[in-house]
Amino acid sequence: MFATAGNLSVKSNLENSFWITASGKHKGHLTEDDFVRTSIFGLELLESSQGNKASAETSIHASIYRFQKKANAALHVHTLDSNLLSFHTTQTERFKLVPIPPIEIIKAFGIWEERPNLQMAVFYNFGNVKQIAESIERFFETHPDYPLPFVLVEEHGPTVWGNSIQDANRHLEAVSFLFQVMTRSK
């Protein structure tokens, strides 16, 4: 992760809450004091040290935790390739499903079908992050069987999730590779 670009979270063992990187923290130099605990449902700040504030993208992580039952960790990054991909989503449509190539790396998502026809959810990059989170929630409400462990906010970055931090990191590595293939094939 470059500088402060992105955020990391993990579900807390305390009911209905998660820990997320505080706003403005350099991701290469994190300590325990650089995380805040937030409610999954009300986005209420529950624990913080040194006056830290929750990341602006906390609402996206909360949406993931509310709708993806296997999500115990979520990583949001701003990669070069994810910023280069453009699918022309609009404010009106809010999201679209975009085909992804059936390359070998999708096995990292637990998809073993030969040459599957998969589509990733791509969301319009609203200036107000809560609108992005609302779009993600609407998507999950209408697509409860979405098979991929990630979504993409167009010209911004992906958010991946997993049952553990290790799973989420594996998904992030696979998504990064997938986006490299997609940008080079255009």
UniProtKB/TrEMBL annotation:
Annotated positions binding Zn(2+): 76, 78
EC number: 4.2.1.109
Pathway entry: Amino-acid biosynthesis; L-methionine biosynthesis via salvage pathway; L-methionine from S-methyl-5-thio-alpha-D-ribose 1-phosphate: step 2/6
Reaction equation(s) it catalyzes: 5-(methylsulfanyl)-D-ribulose 1-phosphate = 5-methylsulfanyl-2,3-dioxopentyl phosphate + H2O
InterPro entries: Aldolase_II/adducin_N (IPR001303), Aldolase_II/adducin_N_sf (IPR036409), MethylthioRu-1-P_deHdtase_MtnB (IPR017714)
GO molecular function: methylthioribulose 1-phosphate dehydratase activity; zinc ion binding
GO annotation terms (biological process): L-methionine salvage from methylthioadenosine
GO cellular component: cytoplasm
Textual note on the cofactor: Binds 1 zinc ion per subunit.
Cofactors demanded by this protein: Zn(2+)
Keyword list, A-Z: Amino-acid biosynthesis, Lyase, Metal-binding, Methionine biosynthesis, Zinc
Residues covered by the Class II aldolase/adducin N-terminal domain: 1-183
Summary of the function given for this chain in its UniProt record: Catalyzes the dehydration of methylthioribulose-1-phosphate (MTRu-1-P) into 2,3-diketo-5-methylthiopentyl-1-phosphate (DK-MTP-1-P).
Family label: Belongs to the aldolase class II family. MtnB subfamily.
Record protein name field: Methylthioribulose-1-phosphate dehydratase
Organism: Leptospira idonii
Organism lineage: Bacteria, Pseudomonadati, Spirochaetota, Spirochaetia, Leptospirales
This protein's encoding gene: mtnB
